[in-house]
Write a structure and sequence with these properties.
The complex is a heterodimer. Chain A is mainly alpha-helical. Chain A has one domain: Amino acid/polyamine transporter I, CATH 1.20.1740. A two-stranded antiparallel ribbon of chain A has the order 1-2. The C terminus of chain A is likely disordered. Chain B is mainly alpha-helical. In chain B, about 65% of the residues lie in helices and about 0% in strands. Chain B is built from 3 helices and no strands. The longest helix of chain B is centred in the N-terminal third of the chain and has 14 residues. Chain B starts with a helix and ends in an 8-residue tail after the last helix. The chains are: A mainly alpha, B mainly alpha. The interface between A and B is large, with 55 and 36 residues.
C-alpha cells in the first residue's frame, strides 16, 4: 500500500510537470503566469533528482557509503574536515553560484522565454548536474585531486595541459566580461557608482574587525558589514541628489574601466584578510538573501510573463547579440544549464569536506539544480518586463541608434511598442538619468527585480530596490573578479615557476607584482576593448565566454567518460558521453560561425573586414574611425582565440577517444588512479550538529 | 527553541564562525601532546589557506 502511494505521488508529480511544460511550450499569443515556470521547474527537478541522480549514484558510480572519504582519512582540522552534508551543500552552492546564471538568461531572453527556459531545465538535469556530480565523485575517489591533475593522470599530458590552459583562458575572459557588466551598470550613474565604491571600504572595515578587533568573530563582523551595505544603498541615493558630490561619481565607461582594473590589481596583491575574504563573506550573505527574497517575491506575486514564447530574433538578427537560436541560445545561457567552471569547484574544496559518498548526489546534483533554479528566476525577471522596455535597455546604441526617439522607433517597428515617455518615467522611478542602451544584463535584471520586489514589498521604494539589485550584482561580480585575478596569478606563477623557479614563489613580491599585472592586463585588454566598442562589447565577449565555459565542461566530461570506460563501465558511458557529444556539437558550431560567418554581426573576421572597408572608404564618423584600428585588431584576435579554443577541445576529445580505444582493444593505458578502499570509521549516526 | 539552536549552529558552522572551536576539538582528539595555535594565529592561517585555490565561480 505504501509503495502504491509512493508510485501514485511520483506519477502525479510527473503529470503536473508535463502539463506545466506543455502549458509553457504550447502557449501562443497569451500572457502566461510565472507560476507555470516554477511548477514545471520543481516537478522536473524532483523527478530528475529522485530517479536519474539516484540511478547514477547507485548503478553508474556505485557510491559506497562504507568507504572512507578523503575528508575522513586525511582529516587535519583545517582544509580536510568531514562536515555535515547541509554545510557542505551550503559551501558548494555558495561557491558555484555566481553572476553567470543571472546574466546569461537575461541576454538569451531576446529569443523569447521558451528556448532559454527549456535549455535551463533540460540542460541542467541531463548535463550540468551530471557533470558536477560525476566530477565530485571522481575527485572524492582520488584524494580530492583537481580536474587538471585527474586529466593528466588518467588521460595523459595533453589532457592535463589542455585543462590547465582552458581554465586560465576562461578565467581571463570571464573576468573581462563581468568587469564590463559592472562598468555598464555604473556608467553615468552616480548612485550605482557611489554604492559600489562604498563596498570596498566596508569590506576593509569588516576585514579589520575580523582580524584585529575581534579575531575570528565572523558572524558579528558580517552582520555589521551587511548593515553598512544597506546603508550604502540609501547613502548612494543621497549622493545622487547632492549637486556637487554626485559629480565625483559621474563617470564615462572608460574611466570606470581603469578604476576596475586598478581595483583588481590591488585586490590581487593585498593580503586576503583585508579585502578579498571579508568581501566574499558579504557577497555570499547578500547573494543567498537576495535569491531567497526573489523566490519568495515571485511565488507571492506570481507576475505575468509579457515576452512572447519565441521572437523573430531566432533567425539570428537579434539586437543584443547576433546569431541564430541554434547554437547561440546554448552558448549564451552558459552557467544556468552546464558550466565547466563548476567542475573546478567540485574537484577542489568540496571533496575535502565530504564526509560520506552517499551525499554526492545531493551536493553535486542538487547544488546544480538550485543553480538552474536561479537561472529560471533570472529568466522570469527579464521576461516580466514589457518586451519593448527589455529591448530598449539591452540593445546597444550601435544597433538601435543613439537618440531616444530613434531607438524607440526602431524597437517599436519590431513589434515591441515602447515610448520615450515610458522609458523616462521608468528611469526616474529607478533613480537613473536614462535606461537606454544599458547593455550587459545587470540593469535590465535590476529593473525586473525592482519591479517584482516593488510590487511585493512596497512600490514607493523602486529606486532603492533598483540600486539594491545593482549592488547585489556588483558585489559578487567584484568578488569573482578579485578571487579570479588572484587564482589567475597563482596559476601563472605556477606555470612560470617551471621556467624560473624564483617566479613560482607565491610570497616573493616582485613575482607577485609581475604576475598580477600580467593577469590584470590580460582581462583589462578585453575590458578596454569592450568599453570602447560602440556595439557594447557584450555581444562579442559573452559568446566568447560561453564558448570557453562550454569547452571547459567538455574537457571535464571527457575526463569523466574516459574514466568510466577505463573502469569497465562502457555500457553506462553515455551518461557523460551524450552531454559531451552535445557540447562538442554546439561549441564547434558556434565557434565555426564566429570564425567563418559572412554576417558581420556574427563572424569575427567578417566584421574586421567590413570595418576595414568602411575605414578605407571614409564612411565612419571621426569618433568611430579613431577606434577602428583597435577594434579590427581585436576582432581578428578574437577569431584566432576562438579557433584556438575549438582546436584544444578537439585535441582532448581525440585524446580521450584514443585512450578509450586502446583500453577497449586490450592495449596498455595509464592505470586508474582511484585510491584503495578503506573502511569508514565514522559511524552511521555520526554526530550531526 | 531546540530547533532554533540547531539552526544557529548550522549558521555558525556555515560561516566559519565556530572554526576555531572545531580546530580545538580536533586538537584535543588527535594531537594531545602539542599546543594548539592561538585564535588569532589560527584564523590568519585558516583564511590564507582558504584562498589558495579556486573558490568562486561564474
Amino acid at each position: 500500500m505504501n509503495n502504491l502511494l509512493k508510485s501514485a505521488t511520483w506519477i502525479l508529480i510527473a503529470g503536473i510537470g508535463a502539463a506545466a511544460i506543455a502549458g509553457i511550450a504550447l502557449n501562443r499569443g497569451e500572457h502566461i503566469n510565472t507560476l507555470w515556470f516554477i511548477t514545471a521547474a520543481l516537478c522536473i527537478y524532483a523527478i530528475a533528482y529522485r530517479f536519474y541522480a539516484a540511478w547514477i549514484a547507485a548503478t553508474v558510480l556505485m557510491v559506497d557509503q562504507t568507504r572512507a572519504t578523503p575528508a575522513e582519512r586525511l582529516d587535519n582540522g583545517r582544509d580536510f574536515v568531514p562536515t555535515n552534508k547541509w554545510i557542505v551543500f551550503g559551501h558548494h552552492f555558495a561557491a558555484i553560484a555566481g553572476p553567470g546564471p543571472l546574466v546569461g538568461p537575461t541576454l538569451a531572453a531576446q529569443f523569447g522565454y521558451l528556448p532559454g527556459t527549456l535549455w535551463i531545465l533540460f540542460g541542467a538535469v541531463l548535463g550540468g548536474c551530471v557533470q558536477d556530480m560525476v566530477t565530485l565523485f571522481l575527485s572524492t575517489r582520488r584524494e580530492a585531486k583537481s580536474l587538471g591533475q585527474m586529466a593528466r593522470d588518467e588521460l595523459g599530458a595533453l589532457g592535463g595541459t589542455a585543462a590547465l590552459i582552458g581554465t586560465f583562458a576562461i578565467m581571463i575572459i570571464l573576468i573581462a566580461v563581468l568587469g564590463l557588466v559592472v562598468v555598464n551598470a555604473m556608467k553615468h550613474s552616480p548612485w550605482a557608482t557611489a554604492t559600489v565604491s562604498a563596498t570596498i571600504p566596508i569590506a576593509m572595515i569588516v576585514g579589520l574587525y575580523m582580524r584585529n578587533f575581534r579575531p575570528g568573530q565572523v558572524l558579528e563582523a558580517s552582520a555589521l558589514g551587511v548593515i553598512l551595505l544597506l546603508l550604502s544603498v540609501a547613502g548612494g541615493g543621497w549622493i545622487d541628489h547632492h549637486e556637487t558630490l554626485r559629480l565625483w561619481f559621474d563617470h564615462e565607461g572608460l574611466t570606470l574601466a581603469w578604476w576596475v582594473m586598478a581595483y583588481g590589481f590591488a585586490a590581487a596583491i593585498l593580503p586576503v584578510w583585508l579585502l578579498l575574504a571579508p568581501r566574499d563573506y558579504l557577497s555570499t550573505y547578500v547573494k543567498l538573501g537576495t535569491i531567497t527574497l526573489l523566490a519568495v517575491a515571485i511565488i507571492m506575486l506570481q507576475p505575468t510573463v509579457k515576452m512572447p514564447a519565441l521572437t523573430q530574433f531566432i533567425d539570428g538578427t537579434g539586437p543584443i547579440f547576433g546569431g541564430k537560436l541554434f547554437p547561440f541560445v546554448f552558448i549564451t545561457i552558459a552557467c544556468g544549464a552546464i558550466s565547466g567552471f563548476h567542475a573546478l569547484i567540485a574537484t577542489g574544496t568540496t571533496p575535502k569536506l565530504l564526509s560520506n559518498e552517499r551525499d554526492i548526489a545531493m551536493i553535486g546534483y542538487g547544488g546544480m539544480l538550485l543553480e538552474s533554479f536561479v537561472a529560471i528566476m533570472a529568466m522570469m525577471a527579464a521576461t516580466v518586463l514589457d518586451p519593448g522596455v527589455f529591448f530598449a535597455i539591452n540593445s546597444p546604441a550601435g544597433v538601435v541608434g543613439k537618440e531616444a526617439v530613434e531607438a524607440v522607433a526602431k524597437i517599436s517597428s519590431w513589434g515591441f511598442p515602447v515610448t520615450v515617455e515610458q522609458m523616462q518615467l521608468l528611469a526616474s522611478q529607478m533613480g537613473e538619468a536614462t535606461l537606454f542602451a544599458r547593455t550587459g544584463g545587470a540593469p535590465s535584471l535590476a529593473v525586473g527585480m525592482a519591479s517584482i520586489f516593488g510590487s511585493a514589498f512596497g512600490e514607493s521604494l523602486l529606486a532603492l530596490w533598483y540600486h539594491f539589485a545593482i549592488m547585489f550584482e556588483a558585489i559578487f561580480i567584484l568578488t569573482t573578479l578579485d578571487a579570479g585575478t588572484r587564482v589567475g596569478r597563482f596559476m601563472l606563477q605556477d606555470m612560470l615557476g617551471n621556467i624560473w623557479p624564483k617566479l613560482g614563489e607565491t610570497s616573493w613580491l616582485p613575482s607577485v607584482i609581475l604576475t598580477s599585472a600580467l593577469v590584470v592586463s590580460g582581462w583589462g585588454y578585453f575590458l578596454y576593448i569592450g568599453v570602447i566598442d560602440p556595439n557594447g562589447g557584450v555581444n562579442i565577449l559573452w559568446p566568447l565566454f560561453g564558448i570557453a565555459n562550454q569547452m571547459l565542461a567538455a574537457i571535464a566530461l571527457c575526463v569523466a567518460t574516459g574514466i568510466l570506460i577505463k573502469s569497465d563501465k562502457f555500457k553506462y558511458a553515455w551518461v557523460t558521453g551524450l552531454p559531451l557529444v552535445w557540447l562538442v556539437i554546439i561549441t564547434s558550431t558556434a565557434a565555426w560561425e564566429k570564425i567563418a560567418s559572412d554576417n558581420i554581426r556574427i563572424g569575427f573576421f567578417a566584421a574586421a573586414k567590413d570595418l576595414e572597408g568602411k575605414l578605407a572608404a571614409g564612411v565612419l564618423t571621426t569618433e568611430k574611425a579613431a577606434v577602428a584600428p583597435q577594434l579590427m585588431f581585436n576582432l581578428q584576435f578574437d577569431g584566432w582565440l576562438t579557433l584556438f579554443f575549438v582546436t584544444l577541445l578537439w585535441l582532448i576529445v581525440f585524446d580521450m577517444l584514443r585512450v578509450c580505444a586502446r583500453y577497449l582493444a586490450g592495449k596498455p593505458v595509464l592505470p586508474l588512479t582511484e585510491s584503495p578502499h578503506s573502511p569508514s570509521r565514522l559511524v552511521e549516526d555520526w554526530v550531526r550538529d | 527553541m531546540h530547533k532554533l539552536k540547531a539552526f544557529w549552529n548550522i549558521v555558525r558552522h556555515l560561516s566559519g564562525d565556530d572554526a576555531y572551536e572545531r580546530y580545538l576539538q580536533h586538537y584535543a582528539t588527535h594531537h594531545q601532546d602539542e599546543l594548539p595555535l592561538s585564535k588569532k594565529a589560527f584564523f590568519k592561517q585558516w583564511q590564507d589557506e582558504k584562498w589558495q585555490g579556486i573558490k568562486r565561480c561564474c
